[in-house]
């Protein structure tokens, strides 16, 4: 590639504001994993997924983004979001182990989210944010944002891996 063309392409890419990861694809792929087994520390649908492994797997497969491997670190690596602004593909966090951000799922819209849970079904499942348990344990919402000028296949939040 000619240096001038490469420089102009880089200038355009680097001038772009931060952008959210592709939400519809994230949600669709996440739902396709419903029923996959739960396994503490798991990171693949075949061998089993825990909540952070599930979120990392989905974002890596859909957007090429690697996320940290625990829910607290994921919360620290993503952009805080007012729950009223939730969009499909955003992350929702819960206090399930008497500590903040101890569980994470992917928001689907209409108050539903998909997550890997061990306590109820032992698999990836869809739940409602309006359910009393999840409403009482809700810690907040976050958005996975691509770094300014990054292509979707760039490891956006590789820190803490």
Automatic annotation (TrEMBL):
Residues 19-145 form the NlpC/P60 domain. The keyword Acetylation does not apply. PROSITE patterns: NLPC_P60 (PS51935). This is C40 family peptidase. Belongs to the peptidase C40 family. The keyword Methyltransferase does not apply. Keywords: Hydrolase, Protease, Signal, Thiol protease. Residues 1-20 form the signal peptide. The lineage of its organism: Bacteria, Pseudomonadati, Pseudomonadota, Betaproteobacteria, Nitrosomonadales. It comes from the Bacteria. InterPro entries: NLP_P60_dom (IPR000064), Papain-like_cys_pep_sf (IPR038765), Peptidase_C40 (IPR051202).
